[in-house]
Amino acid sequence: MSETFFMPTRLISGSDCINLHADRFDAFGKKALLVTGAHSAKDCGAEKDVITALDSRGIAYAIFDRVMSNPTVECCFEGAAVAKEEGADFIIAIGGGSPMDAGKIIAILAGQELTHEALLTGGIGSSVLPIVMVPTTAGTGSEVTQYAILTNDILETKTNIVSERIFPKLAFLDARYTQNLPLATTIHTVLDALSHAVEGMMSVRTGAITNALAIEAIQRVMAAVPLLAEIKADTADIAIAIPIDVRQSLMMASTLAGMVIANTGTTVVHAMGYSLTYFHDIDHGRANALVLPAYLSHVAEQNPDLAQKVLKALDLPSPDAFRKTIDALLGTRESLNHEDVQRFAKMAIVTRNIGNCIVKPKVETIEMLFQESMAG
Ligand code: NAP
Ligand code: ZN
Predict the structure, then answer these.
(1) Which of 141, 175, 248, 338 is least enclosed, having the fewest CB within 10 Å?
(2) DSSP E strand stretches across the chain
């Protein structure tokens, strides 16, 4: 059986890794644009560590800190204008998947003149600024993917811009930055990583390498689930409730699962999740986790051997047990009316994700999956 695997990002992990490897920035130029959300990059200490490292190497910087969750195309054009104005040689994105994805698009737009339409239809020129990533959530794996997912108000969905040119050159994985990530964001992002790993195993592009990475990622997430499920929502000190070694393990799980989807793509689960996020503002990871158990049950009916492989990795006896595990983390599920079920299923069936599924759903199946996944 043939298999291809590609992952060109240099990864440096561990406590204080930015400071310890500050010389790695030298390769990218004399001025950086830091791309962040409004608060967390500063609050978690990552931005300060990056600035200290840049100062120590004589590298200048400017900051664009206006990336919102589920970034828009307009936000990326705004960031690119700053990059051009400041003469940035490279991009350092600090944050969750939103600033990391925006950073990738800013790197494209700062390097050349592109229209909104050209960008959304994949017309990516050859001149893309080098990209460095500092993830502050453990979930998306954007630091090791060639994807940038933007809110697309023209198509009313999330559009995935795909190009090997936006693989980051370098990523620093320091779990200390995730220590104060609130419980709900921690759970939702971790479930995104779990979804990436499980979907990777159920993709037509799965192989020995991605399976090995997916199984390791799944085991790391599942090892943390009992702890995450027992923490009270109003816990006074999240940094104590989730020890740093658990945070480190989850950060690595997220990166491993990112390497999986960089090579397998995602499935109908992500395709369904995009509408839940776009129209109902449900966090990306939560949206996938709502749908994933129903799809695994469907796979168990259509391809029991494949479902068995996934259940073995999860160390669970059945799809029902998987749903109970996810429910313990998600709490009350959101509801969806019949009209939305039909509309979202029609949108999901035409996505590229369907081609990735070993068990390919029909539009009626997707409707059924939404009904099984959402409350009343
Ligand atoms: P996010 O949208 O980046 O961040 C969610 C929230 O968490 C924001 O309010 C953010 O605050 C906050 N936050 C981030 N780090 C924090 C920290 N260390 N401590 C406290 N708060 C923190 O969430 P995400 O789930 O990581 O990313 C979701 C996005 O990634 C979606 O757009 C999704 O489509 C995309 N995605 C991309 C890929 C890929 O391969 N490219 C894969 C999966 C998902 P601030 O706004 O202040 O930063
Ligand atoms: Zn995802």
Answers:
(1) 338
(2) 10-13, 31-36, 60-64, 90-95, 131-135, 147-152, 157-162, 170-173
Distinct helix (H) and strand (E) counts, the chain: 17, 8
* pTM attached to this predicted model: 0.97
Determine whether the shortest distance from the Cβ of 273 to ligand 1 is under 6 A.
no
- Beta-ladder partners of 152: 157
- Which residue, by CA, sits nearest to atom 4 of ligand 1? 96
Q: Kindly give the distance from the C-alpha atom of residue 51 to the centroid of ligand 2, in angstroms, as a whole number.
A: 29
Give the mutation target among 35, 44, 66, 69 for probing the ligand 1 site: most ligand atoms within 8 A of CB. Answer: 69
| Ligand 1 probe mutation, 7, 137, 199, 261, most atoms within 8 A of CB | 137
Give the span between the Cα atoms of 100 and 72, in whole angstroms: 13
Contact yes or no for 97/139 (Cβ under 8 A): yes
According to DSSP, the β-strands at 60-64 and 31-36 are parallel
- Compute, in degrees rounded to 10, the torsion defined by CA atoms 149, 147, 44, 110: -90
**Per-residue pLDDT reduced to its tens digit, 2-38:** 889 999 999 999 999 999 999 999 999 999 999 999 9
User: Do the beta carbons of residue 11 and residue 144 sit within 8 Å?
Assistant: yes
| Ligand 1 lined by 158 (C-beta under 6 Å) | yes
